[in-house]
Amino acid sequence: MASYNKDVDYRALIDKAASVGDYRTAAELEKQRNEKIAGEGMRYQTTSDYSGWLDKTDYGEKIQSAVNDGKSKQAVSNLLEKRVDKAGSTLGMGQWAYDDIYDMAMEYLATGVNAGTYQSSYSDSISELLDKLLSREAFSYDYESDPLYQSYAEVYGREGKRAMEDALGLSAQNTGGLASSYATAAAQQAGSYYGSQLAGKIPELYKLAYEVYLGEAESDVQNLQMLSELEQNEYQRHRDSVEDIYKDAELDYEKYLDELEAQRYDSEQQYKKSRDAVEDQRYDTEWQYDLDRDAIDDRRYEAQLAAKTPAKTSSSSKSSSSGRDDRKTEVSVYGLTGTYSLPEAEAMVAIGLAERVKEKRKTIYKIAAMN
Predict the structure, then answer these.
(1) I want to staple 156 with a disulfide (CB 3.0 to 4.6 A). Which of 14, 194, 248, 350 is the partner?
(2) pTM for the full model?
(3) 234, 262, 244: which is closest to 106 by C-alpha?
(4) What is the DSSP letter of 21?
C-alpha cells in the first residue's frame, strides 16, 4: 500500500517545512514525494536534498568516542568522511561539516592523540579584575574620614590657636595686661580665619578624592586590557602551533581521499562496464524480440492472405450448402489484437500461427506462441 497521497503537492510542503527550519519533516515529505514519483510514473526527478535527516547516526559522537578510546586513524578517518559527506550533502546540516569535532578529528589524525583544549595562563587574573570593576561602588566622599583632611585640620587648628594667643598677647601688652572685649574679638577673628581656610579645602579634597577614584578604575581597565592582549597573544601562539598540525593532517587526509577517490573511480568504471554489458544483453534481447514479432506479423499476413483464398474442402462446401457465411463470423485470437473472420482464424491454424482448443464446450482460438 502506497505511503503517499497522490493528490498532495509535496514540493510545496517541503519548501514550507524547510523555511521554518523543520528539516526532519522536510526529509519525510521528500521521501513521500520520491515514492509518489515512482509509484505514479511521473517524469519529475527524485531528490535527496534532506535525506541525511533520516539517518539518525550521530557521527560526531562516534568520532569523539573513537578518539577518546584511542581507535585507529583509519577508523576515525572513515567516520569523519561519513560525517562530512552527510553534513555537506544535506540541506540544513552544512554547519556541522567543518566544526570543532572536525578540528579534533584532524588533530588526532595528525598526532594520533587528543591534544586537548587551550588553557589560558591569565584567565584567573582577568576574572578577578573584571569582578572588581563590575562590583565597584559608586563614588562618595566623607571629608571627616579623609586622612588628608584630618592633617589639614590639625595644621589649621594649631595655626588658629596660635593666632588667637598672639592676638590676646598683643592686646594685653597694649592694655597693661588687662583683658578687654576688643582683645577677645580679635582673638576669635584670628581663629575663625583659619577655620574658614580649613572649610575651603573641602571642595579641593573632594575633587582630589574623585580623581583618585577615577584613576584607580582607569588603572584597572588598563591592566585588564594588558592581560587580555597577553592572553590573545598566548592563544594565537597556541593556534599557530595547532594550525601547523592541522595543515600536515589535512595533507595526509587529502592523500587518503585521493586514494579513496581513485578506488571509487575504479569501482565506477567497473560498474559502468557491467552496466554496458547488461545494456548490450538487453539490446540483443529486444532485437530478437523485434525479429520474433516481425516473424509473427509475417505469418499473420500469410494467414490473412490464405483466408481470402476460397478453401476447396468438403467442410467448406458443406458450409456453403448450408447457407451459412463464415466470413461474417468474427472471432478473437487470444494473444493478437482485434477480431478476425472464421476463415482467417482457420488459416492461422493451418500455418501454425494459432491453434484451436476447446474450453467449456466452446471452440476458441489463441496464438500458438502463448503455449
Answers:
(1) 194
(2) 0.36
(3) 244
(4) T
